Amino acid sequence: MLGSKTGLPDSKPPALSISPSKLKEGLMQRGKTRIFLVDVREPDEYADWKIDGSQNIPIDHLITPKGLRQIPKDAEVITICAHGVRSSQAAMFLRQKGFNAMNLAGGLAAWNKVYDMAPVPLNGKDLFELLQVRRVGKGCTSYMVCYQGQCAVIDPSVHTDEYVSAARKHGFKITHVMDTHQHADHVSGARALARAVGAKLYLNPLDAYRYTDFIPLKEGDMISLGDGGVAIEAVHTPGHTKGSTSFLIQRSGVLTGDTLFVEGIARPDLRNKADEYALDLFNTYRDKILSMPEQVTILPGHFSQQVKMEFGKPFSSTLKDIRRRIPLLEASKTEFTRYVLANIPPKPSNYESIVRINKGEEPYDPEAFDDLEEGPNRCAVKV
Ligand SMILES: [Fe+2]
C-alpha cells in the first residue's frame, strides 16, 4: 500500500504526494494494491511522453461529473503532470471528493530520475555479471559488465551515483567507462563517472569531442576485465553517428547503443547528414550486424513504449528474432535508404544543446539538466 493506512489510528493526515521511488515500489507490487495513474495534462503533451499504463484525463475534464466517473473509488489514485503543479491541484480536488489520491511529486521531470536494474542472463553468465540499468521515464539503457571485482559501465546517464552504488552493492570497482556514441537525447554521464571513480574513459573520436582526456576507441579494440578472462570487443557500427560503436561481450551479447533496437532501427539525421549516414547504416547492418551469429543477444541503448518493460526483468532480443521482426534490415540499399529517409521521427527536445554539452562545447552542469532532458528518447526509426 502506498498511503499511510496501517490499520492503527493515524495521527497524521495521509500524504498528499508520493515520491517517484515510492511509486516505483508500488508499481512493482501492483498485484497487492490497485493503483490508478491519471495524467492530467493535455492530450498532445500526453501523446508525446507518458508513464506506461497511465490514463489521460486532462484536468479541465477531470473536475466535471463525467471526468470523476472515470476515477475508480477503490484504487490508490496517482495524479501526474510535467512538474507536479497541475497534478497537485488535481489530487487535492480528488481528495475533497473522497478519492484516495496522491500527487506524483515533481511530476514526469522527477520520474525521469528513476532507475531500475535487471541482471541479464547470457551464455557465460557464471563467468561475469551483466546488469541492464534502465532509466525508466526516459527509456535510456546503460549496462554494467562486471568480472573479478572490475566493472565496465557503458552509456551511463548523468545520475552517476546510480552506477557507483550498484557497483558497491555488488562488490565491484568501476574501472572502465565507455559510450556507444555521442548522445543527442540525453546528457552522457560517462566523463563525469570516469573522473569520479578514477576509471578509464573510452570514446570513439570520430564523434568529434572537444576534449581529449579519453582513450580513443577503434574497430577491433579489446577491453579486458580482471585477468583478461572477459573481453569486450569494439565493433565500429556507424550510421546513427560517425563514431557509433557496439560492444560485443564474450561473443554472446552485443550492446548496440542506438544502432539497433529490439523494435526499430537507428535514425541517421541528428548530425544533419542524413543521406550519408543512412548509407553508413545500411553498410553497418549488412557488413557488421547481420554477420553476427543469429543467436547473439541484442541489448540496445533505448526502449520505447512498444517494449514491455517490467521492473527487475531485462529486455533484449536475439538477432534472429529482430531479423524476423524487421525485414527492412535485409532490404536493398535503395529500398532501405528510401524508407529510412522518409520515416524520420521528430527530433528529440533540445538535442542541439545536448550534443554541444556531450561534445564538450558547453559546460557540464547537472543542475540544468532536468529541463533539458524532458521528453522521451527519440533515437529510433519505427519499422
Ligand atoms: Fe543516440
Give an overview in words.
This protein is an alpha/beta fold and 383 residues long. It folds into two domains: 17-111, Rhodanese-like domain (Oxidized Rhodanese, domain 1, 3-Layer(aba) Sandwich), CATH 3.40.250.10; 115-382, Metallo-beta-lactamase, Chain A (4-Layer Sandwich). It has 13 helices and 20 strands. It has helices at 20-28, 43-48, 59-62, 65-68, 86-96, 107-111, 161-170, 190-197, 274-289, 319-325, 333-342, 351-359, 369-372, and strands at 17-18, 35-39, 55-56, 76-80, 100-104, 115-119, 129-135, 140-147, 150-154, 173-178, 200-203, 215-216, 222-225, 230-236, 245-249, 253-257, 264-266, 297-300, 317-318, 380-382. The strands form four sheets. A seven-stranded mixed sheet has the order 6-7-8-9-10-11-12, covered by helices on one side. Helix 9 (274-289) crosses helix 11 (333-342). It is globular. It starts with 16 loop residues before the first strand and ends with a strand. The structure holds fe (ii) ion. Fe (ii) ion is lined by residues 181, 183-185, 240, 258, 379.
